[in-house]
Specification:
alpha/beta, globular, 31% strand, two-stranded antiparallel sheet, 4 helices
Length: 202
């Protein structure tokens, strides 16, 4: 039984390592704020929100998350018309006319893009007595399915706040996530990380 106990301990340690790696996956890489940015600049304000990305599904997920996170921080939001959105990378100045017409104080623009990729061999961990899947070869251990690996991508989100009256950039930050197969979870974490970093805005 000592051998079994040691094997189980190793397997449990490996499982804990995988869980920890999955948790520490999102972080803010860089942040800048204007010296003219007052505390609580966006609290209670109306903000025009725009998400820029080449994929419509990511755009919709981004909009839903950013709008919800801003609302939770006391900001009223308006969505920029998707049909009128400029291509990713264009200056945020193009949003200002629509923001002025809507009576918005600022434009909150978000760009979403690919940050990294990883290829997983499909390693799976089995714990217990007996078999652990058709590719396992022992009672306790790690197994890898035969065949190609799974490609996972990590996204980055760049947020920018532009003052409508002056046209000046007031705040910007970038966050990135480790590769995973769950884009919804990544964008949710990225949005939260960005807004948490910009706490002075609210």
């Amino acid at each position: 039984m000592p051998t079994l106990s040691r094997t189980l301990a190793v397997a449990l340690a490996a499982a804990a390592g995988l869980l920890l790696a999955g948790c520490a996956s999102t972080g803010v890489d860089a942040q800048w704020r204007s010296v003219e940015l007052p505390a609580g600049y966006l609290h209670g304000a109306t903000v025009l929100v725009s998400c820029e990305t080449g994929e419509p599904v990511l755009q919709r997920i981004c909009e839903d998350r950013v709008v919800a996170d801003l609302a939770a921080r006391g900001v009223r939001t308006l969505l920029h018309a998707p049909s009128a959105a400029p291509p990713p990378g264009d200056t945020d100045m193009q949003y200002l006319p629509a923001a002025r017409d809507a009576g918005a104080k600022a434009v909150f623009s978000v760009s979403v893009g690919l940050a990294s990729q990883s290829v997983s061999p499909g390693i799976s961990l089995g714990l217990g007595i007996g078999g652990f899947g058709r590719h396992s070869a022992g009672s306790i251990g790690v197994s890898a399915p035969i065949g190609g690996g799974q490609v996972s991508v990590g996204y980055a989100m760049n947020g920018r706040v532009t003052d409508v009256a002056s046209g000046r950039l007031m705040w910007t930050a970038r966050a990135s996530a480790a590769p995973s197969s769950d884009a919804n979870a990544q964008l949710a974490e990225l949005s939260k990380s960005l807004l948490d970093a910009g706490a002075a805005l609210f």
